[in-house]
Amino acid sequence: MTVESLQPTKPGRVGRFLPVLLALFVGACAAIYTNHGYVPPEDVLAGIRVGVSDREEVARLAGRPSTAGVITDRAWYYVASKRRHYAWKAPEEIDRQVVRISFDDRGTVRNIERFTLADGRVVRLNARVTETGIRGIGLLRQLLSNIGRTRLTKEDLR
């Protein structure tokens, strides 16, 4: 054995960038968390008094809601969710908070409720399709098929 064979060899280009590439690869596998929406904190909700506070006071203390009742404006909904996303996988909702503040006819707070992800239900949508009676006929054929189907009466000709 010679002294030259015992000397450490200089790393090549790949050897110098391998730790960097490895760090990037491992970092890409880390989870990414995203937050959406807003739910007032408990101390803010404690300041809203059932039977006393009105819409203006709720808006001043907690802010305007994410959503209000669709048919009637008798409830305000504050919604916040947290999602976790790994590299190529679909995002997964890991936390959801919904605060519902309902009002009576005069606009006074009637109730404050809090719901979580565990309280949610999966709503299955119905995929029924209304039959149209138009099968295998294109738009152009439908338009052209109406030519000549008009029956004129003597009153139409006057």
Structure description:
The protein is α+β, with helices and mostly antiparallel strands. 28% of the residues lie in helices and 25% in strands. It has a domain at 30-125. It has 6 helices and 5 strands. Strands 1, 2, 3, 4 and 5 form a 5-stranded antiparallel β-sheet that branches.
Key phrases:
alpha+beta; 5 strands; flat
In short:
The protein is α+β, with helices and mostly antiparallel strands and 158 residues long.
Q: Uncertain segments of ≥5 residues (pLDDT<50)? A: none
Q: Could you tell me the mean pLDDT?
A: 80
Kindly name the structural category: alpha+beta
The residue fraction in helices comes out at 25-40%
Report Rg. 33 Å
Sheet with the most strands, sense and barrel status: 5 strands, antiparallel
Measure the end-to-end span.
119 Å
Order of helices and strands: HHEHHEEEEHH
Proportion of residues in extended strands: 15-25%
Secondary structure tally: strands: 5
Q: Please work out how many helical segments DSSP would assign.
A: 6
User: How would you describe the shape?
Assistant: flat
